[in-house]
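Internal ticket #5521
Category: modeling
Description: The requester needs a full-assembly model to guide mutagenesis choices. All entity lines are attached below as received. Residue total reported by intake: 739.
Assigned to: D.W.
Attached entities:
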Amino acid sequence: MDEKSTGKTFRMYLMICAGTGCVSNHSYEIKTALEKELARQGLENEVSVVPTGCNGFCERGPILVVQPGNIFYQQLTVKDIPYLVEEHFLKGRPVAKLMYVPPEGKTPVPVLSDIPFFKKQVLIALRNRGLINPEKIEEYIARDGYKAISKALTEMTSEKIISEIALSGLRGRGGAGFPTGLKWQLVRNAASSNGGQKYIICNGDEGDPGAFMDRSILEADPHAVIEGMIIGAKAMGATEGFIYVRNEYPLAVQRLDIALKQAREYGLLGENILGTGFDFDIRIKRGAGAFVCGEETALLASIEGRLGEPKPRPPYPAQSGLWGKPTCINNVETWANVPTIINRGAKWYAGIGTETSKGTKVFSLVGKINNTGLVEVPMGITLREIIYDIGGGIPAGKAFKAVQTGGPSGGCIPSEKIDLPIDYESLTAAGSMMGSGGMVIMDEETCMVDIARYFLSFTQDESCGKCTPCREGTKAMLSILTRITEGKGTEEDVTLLEELAVAIKDTALCGLGKTAPNPVLTTLRYFRNEYEIHIRDKKCPAHVCRQLNEYVIDPDLCLNKGRGCDVCRRNCASEAIIGEKNEAHVIDQAKCIKCGVCFDVCNFQAVKVK
Amino acid sequence: MPKLTVQDLEKIREQTRRALSIREGGEFKAKVNVHMGTCGIAAGARTIMSALIQEVETRGTTDVLLTSSGCAGLCSREPMVTVELAGQAPVKYANLTEPKIREIFERHILGGAIVKDYALGIGSEKTDL
């Protein structure tokens, strides 16, 4: 056993965030600087530096949380470290200038749990984030890790495990929300009639733009996923498991690899686990990052070594999955919830959330929001609480316009639905879906036609091309949307978009195609007016679609404020600006290519967009 | 590497508990605050802290929290330590040495009896008026 993580006594722990976000903000350099400075001050035997998984508040990285005290330091640089070590870690005086100051306030908030971003969160899947070193199995064990398998393997029958998961109300966190207990039951039953080999799979092929829930869980707490899978294996009678994870997540792959090795060394994976006679092992399968491989039949094909293409269901993987054997596929977050449900009981878990959606959900907040990051909240929380209380609202005092949930398969939810309580059903009723948990926040300067075009270009790009509706249909929809954003749309285009959308939804082979039209349908439902303005008036109200913009120079501001500074003329690539220094400048609309450079370079806001 | 049993897992939990309870902000029976101002350090506060850490480590104590803070204001009596048992008024000790703090650890922090010979006073200044 590693002495440093267990036996040795420290009076203080410096929990440095080592999630991908903070690592790219140089948190490992901070770690090295801390260790160097602690040694210089002779504190290396009193104070320990512990790398942890993602804290969630990625906007403020690199992040350091000091225990005891839960003191939260943010946006650290290497040059802050000597002062911080001497003042706080030696002399015990926390350093206010390195603490978080909320956007509206002036006073730093020293303690993590007092920061609004963290206050409303409830951690189940992310229960160990920031508290343990994900590369040390002993620390996971100390936080009641592998307690649930002790219980599941020694005290519970397979039926009892499945009924506990079913009673908890846990539903698939990958997006569709299929009841997990029922899925397990189907695989178990299929197995008893077929006999032989069964498989379980962890789906970590997270591909939605702006989504990083699975990555963070795998990086912060790989053992939680492994333990969940061992319990699932026992319940369903599987002896082999796979974790399918994107190769673009090198840190997640690396930590998983370490975790699997440690679990095997301790006999928590392999033969005769904990001496109970139960055998199970897990292998990592790295994916090449194709979006369609998140679809379960395509994922199975990819693990089997075939081209990652979907096939029609039924048969469902529960009957005929990996190499034709009954297979259970659950998402990373779903597996991470399982040990806590076994430890604390179905009743406890079902006490959190709404009537139909139990427990918590992890969301990644991205886009036009102050607190970009990763949050875990109870089901039933409103969008307003997530966006304003946790997310800290919209930057620069802009108005909230819409939120895209469910990634390219989901839809936009407009600002008037901001008090919508979040669960599977309410999001579906609003035309969107839970999805895996990506939330892209949009402000008033976002063009909804452009957003629909963006998401469709993503799905069109990622379409595997196997079925015609998805391959050709998304291409046709994309070309119509592009046409509209360029001012070449016609009155019939909206109807055509709707017809195509319905046809693709009804006929595409897999979930990717069936849901691809959703962003278009929801923007049409809530922002139809914007489509009409693009088509009828050839204008983009948000001034995002540059081909529809008309740039003009306010002669008064140009002459009296800017004294005809000539910067715009010198920067104009198409020589469309006329004027001498100290004169008001004019744009020749015939020559203007609407690149917007003059608007960006003018220091006097004299260039206007119409 | 040994293959674990359910009992082994429990043992690991026990051994790692102290580190984790500090991180989790758990309940502690006693909080010991070593005053680490420049005056304290000059008078030997670092030795006092090391002795405390050693006591905790050799005895395997899990419910005593060791922290540091700035100068307590009485620089001439450093090194100083404030001992706070859960639910009791804090006690300040002054002019400490290594043997004294070890005695305080055993008699007061673990045993609950104030070591009157070394104590400066009971209670704290008012902080919220």
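Resolution: model delivered.
Comment from assignee: Chain B touches chain A at residues 1-6, 9, 12-13, 15-20, 22-25, 33-38, 41, 46, 49-50, 52-53, 56-57, 65-70 (CB under 8 Å).
Ticket closed.
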